[in-house]
Write a structure and sequence with these properties.
This protein is α+β, with helices and mostly antiparallel strands. The chain has one domain (2-61): Alpha-Beta Plaits (2-Layer Sandwich). It is built from two helices and four strands. The protein has helices spanning 15-19, 43-52, and strands spanning 2-5, 24-27, 30-33, 58-61. Strands 1-4 form a two-stranded antiparallel sheet. The longest helix is centred in the last third of the chain and has 10 residues, at 43-52. It is globular and about 25 Å long. The protein binds iron/sulfur cluster (SF4). Residues 5, 10-16, 31, 53-55, 57-58 line the site of iron/sulfur cluster (SF4).
């Protein structure tokens, strides 16, 4: 699984970091993805972050 953040849509409040801190990080007020490939044990957390992102800024690419 790959995931990306649409930076212009990100509100930067960090919900995704709380859900999947190994995958997302806030840099200069915007979430970034720290990994090229989401580890298998983080996939559920990334899906949860995607579903819970208040601005729908997270896109999952299988
Ligand atoms: S949950 Fe969405 S809006 Fe919030 S920091 Fe993460 S990508 Fe940005």
């Amino acid at each position: 699984m790959k995931v990306k953040v649409i930076e212009e849509n990100c509100a930067g409040e960090g919900f995704c970091v709380e859900e999947a801190p190994g995958v997302f990080e806030i840099v200069d007020g915007v979430a970034i993805v720290k990994v090229d490939e989401v580890p298998a044990d983080m996939e559920d957390a990334v899906r949860s972050a995607c579903e819970g992102c208040p601005t729908a800024a997270i896109e999952i690419e299988d």
